[in-house]
Request: fold
Amino acid sequence: MADRLWVVIPAAGTGRRMLGDVPKQYLPLAGRSVIEWSMSPFLARRDIAGIVVALAADDQHFVSLPTAGDPRIRRAVGGAERVDSVLSGLHSLDAVERDWVLVHDAARPCLHADDLSRLIGELATDDVGGLLAVSVADTLKSAVDDRVQGTVPRTNLWRALTPQMFRFGLLLRALREAVQTRRAVTDDSAAIELLGLKPRLIAGRADNIKITVPEDLRQAATTLQQRSKTN
Reply:
């Protein structure tokens, strides 16, 4: 039997920088909520075994979404940190050691289906797994108190995106060890790296942005609207 593909979407955050009453993953965007756009590329595929969305314990928004009743979607209770939500999602899966898990941010609504297919295809036989990423094009500065301290060489620097794709057993072990050793990890790749492994970078589209501030929402709307005109 082929290794199955599962999806975990951590969605327990509140999005404080958006300055709104509604968590950013539920903000309206081009006719849907942000999280509906984030889930849509996975729901469009027949090879996805299931999706777990890790929600805040008091979340009252998700159940009202049109896609909430999809039989492939189940819910888990998320935690205070991203790593806690991903772990909760993993524990809710019916996965086995060699199954693949794709972890995708609830606030990344612009994942392109082509990027998702390339990630899955290129990592299918990889020993470690990997992630979508974009090479850094801008000049980078280090600073203290808003004063430039130096220019950081951008050669070999990448911006990490999601989804990030790893074997279920490996990812579970990596995240558990990160929590137990109190090592801060801001994405799943960082936890894998702490095991001494080297995830593979798969070049993705720069418009796969994460909604963080209001301007990001406007940029995402433009991206999605442009795509709808070309499809």
Observations:
- The chain has one domain: 5-132+161-230.
- The radius of gyration is 18 Å.
